[in-house]
Write a structure and sequence with these properties.
Elements (H helix, E strand, L loop, with lengths): L2 H8 L7 H7 L11 E4 L3 H5 L3 H11 L5 E6 L2 E6 L1 H15 L13 E5 L14 H16 L3 E5 L7 H13 L2 H25 L2 H14 L3 H25 L16 H10 L3 E4 L2 E4 L9 E4 L7 H16 L3 E7 L3 H13 L8 E6 L2 E3 L14 H19 L6 H18 L7 E3 L1 H4 L7 H18 L12 H22 L4 H20 L7 H25 L8
Parallel strand pairs: 4-5, 4-9, 9-10, 11-12
Antiparallel strand pairs: 1-3, 2-3, 6-7, 7-8
Helix pairs in contact: 1-2, 5-18, 7-8, 7-9, 8-10, 9-10, 11-12, 14-15, 17-19, 17-20, 18-19, 18-20, 19-20
Length: about 550
């Protein structure tokens, strides 16, 4: 039973449809108030009554054998019969198992998700963490709820930086050093180029010359560019595998080279393109925005030009229901501008484009600069977390057989969870000690709770034959939290907030641990023992599903 739908169907009041009631129902801040609450304030105007009187009328007319309704101020609080809710919730979790929380609400709807978007020949650093794991979580969540997600890695593979790299490589590089050092060796050349260019500005002209040769199809320049790209994808591919991140398209900026001119032509035909100081722009002053520059005075394209071409290509190719751009909030204006340009071009689907903005990630010791070589590689952050996790696990459980494997699952999980636990728009200062705290609001704590549940089930055995005759308060708190999971996922998808899932996992783990310490499981009498084992398995299933949607694994022992 979907209790929220059940309540909505049984509420009878003037001016509200069943869907209205369903949408208005919320979980009260204090569990003693009930399982759901219906605020009546918005009805006061239409019904010409005080909210408290409306609440009393709704509660008085509510008839139901499994849900009790009572008015409190301007709210109607609904309390579900604990035994009924426990039976229903556990049956659903234990039957659906790894599909618990999933739905087919997105059937037939394709959602493009543009995330990570690393730059070729530049380091995959800590600043790429949020877009990568946030985009990946949204990909998994959409798929879990029945949508067809298309993960797009819009590679930064276009621009004068490649001319700079070719210039640097031809002057100071050696093939064997680059093959051996990979992305780090390429980045060292990039840093050296900028150091030398400060002393000899003519190097910048040389870089532009080499980039032009790439554009013109010069064989040697193109071969070098493709080699740099191959080395980059090999390096970042290893990190994507660690983070359980996958893509369906690797079409980068260069892919749209031959798709930009038709966009420029369409803008010109529709009278949207005007000249300003030699550049071609779309004037957005009527919308309180600076102009969107389409072509520079030298005829070169910009990010907006390529993004317009990419958006049109994605609509034509995937016919998306939504198209998400998981990009830092510093680009807010850029997305407002190019979404508006598409709207002015008459693309009615421009309303389906969403900028999923997020805050920045930095380490406790400060910011970074790729040009100056001050950069923190994401791989180093992951390695350090894995090393710290191994040290903690070795101290806590020295006889654990597969310590290295568990440490990798814990360390990688800590990195992902550290980026996803807070609201996405917040800036994050990444702390190794904080993310690896086994007692705090971390993935380590949730994983440790899962290991505890595994241990209980290993000793008690899997139970399929259980009955529910009464439910104590600690058990009911766990049951209520289990029942919330599908709604949490829908809310997380609607608001593009995987942090809801991360926080839910911590809350459920805390409630289970309270139940574990307050209530005897294995030593309880037979019927109670069977129910509590079923409850423990339901918690484990739900926590694994929650962490899995974030890209985090669960070890059986820690």
């Amino acid at each position: 039973m979907d209790f929220k739908k059940h309540i909505a169907a049984n509420v009878k009041t003037e001016g509200l449809t069943e869907q209205d009631v369903y949408d208005m129902l919320a979980v009260p801040p204090v569990s003693s108030m009930g399982n759901f609450a219906l605020p009546c304030f918005r009805l006061a105007k239409t019904l010409h009554k005080a909210p408290n009187l409306i609440a009393q009328e709704i509660a008085g007319s509510y008839k139901d054998s499994v849900v009790q309704a009572e008015a409190l101020g301007g709210y109607v609080n609904f309390k579900i019969d604990p035994v009924c809710m426990a039976k229903d919730t556990l049956q659903r979790v234990l039957s659906e198992r790894e599909r618990y929380g999933s739905s087919d609400e997105g059937r037939g709807k394709t959602v493009c998700i543009d995330y990570s978007s690393v730059n070729i020949a530049k380091p995959f650093h800590i600043g790429h963490l949020s877009t990568t794991v946030l985009g990946s979580a949204l990909y998994k969540l959409h798929k879990f709820l029945g949508y067809t997600p298309v993960g797009i890695n819009h590679l930064g593979d276009y621009g004068t930086q490649f001319g700079k790299l070719i210039s640097a490589y031809k002057r100071w590089g050696k093939k064997e050093d680059i093959e051996k050092g990979g992305l780090r060796a390429l980045n060292a050349l990039y840093v050296r180029f900028h150091e030398e260019a400060e002393k000899d500005p003519s190097l910048n002209e040389e870089a532009r010359h080499f980039f032009k040769k790439i554009e013109e199809g010069d064989e040697e320049s193109v071969q070098l560019f493709e080699w740099f790209k191959e080395l980059t994808l090999k390096d970042v591919g290893r990190i994507y595998d660690l983070l359980d991140v996958h893509f369906d398209s690797w079409a980068g900026e260069s892919f749209y080279n031959d798709k930009m001119q038709p966009v420029v032509d369409e803008l010109r035909e529709k009278g949207l393109l005007v000249e300003s100081e030699g550049a071609q722009i779309v004037d957005l002053s009527a919308y309180d925005m600076p102009p969107c520059i389409i072509l520079r005075s030298d005829g070169a394209s910009l990010y907006a030009t390529r993004d317009l071409a990419a958006a049109i290509y994605r609509k034509e190719t995937y016919d998306f229901y939504k198209s998400l751009y998981v990009v830092a909030y510093q680009q807010n204006l850029h997305f407002k501008q190019f979404f508006k340009v598409l709207e002015l071009m008459g693309k009615e689907w421009a309303k389906d484009l969403v900028h999923v903005a997020y805050g920045m990630v930095s380490l406790e010791d400060g910011s970074m600069s790729t040009r100056k070589g001050k950069v923190v590689y994401l791989e180093d952050v992951i390695d350090r977390c894995v090393e710290k996790a191994l040290a903690v696990i070795t101290e806590k459980n020295p006889s654990l057989e597969n310590k290295e494997e568990v440490a990798q699952t814990v360390g990688v999980g800590a990195v992902i969870f550290g980026a996803l636990y807070n609201n996405k728009i917040k800036d994050i200062t990444f702390s190794y000690d904080k993310v690896l705290n086994f007692e705090g609001e971390t993935s380590c704590y949730v994983q440790y709770t899962c290991a505890r549940a595994y241990s209980v089930l290993e000793k008690g055995g899997t139970v399929r034959d259980y009955s529910v005759e009464e439910v104590c308060p600690q058990e009911f708190e766990v049951v209520k939290k289990l029942a919330e999971f599908p709604d949490v996922l829908r809310d997380a998808l609607e608001k593009y907030e995987p942090s809801f899932i991360a926080r839910y996992a911590v809350d459920l783990a805390q409630l289970f641990n309270k139940f574990y310490f307050d209530c005897t499981i294995l030593g309880a009498e037979e019927k109670t023992r069977a129910f509590r084992l079923a409850l423990t398995e339901s918690v484990l299933i739900t926590l694994k599903n929650a962490l899995g949607l974030l890209g985090i694994g669960v070890p059986e022992k820690m």
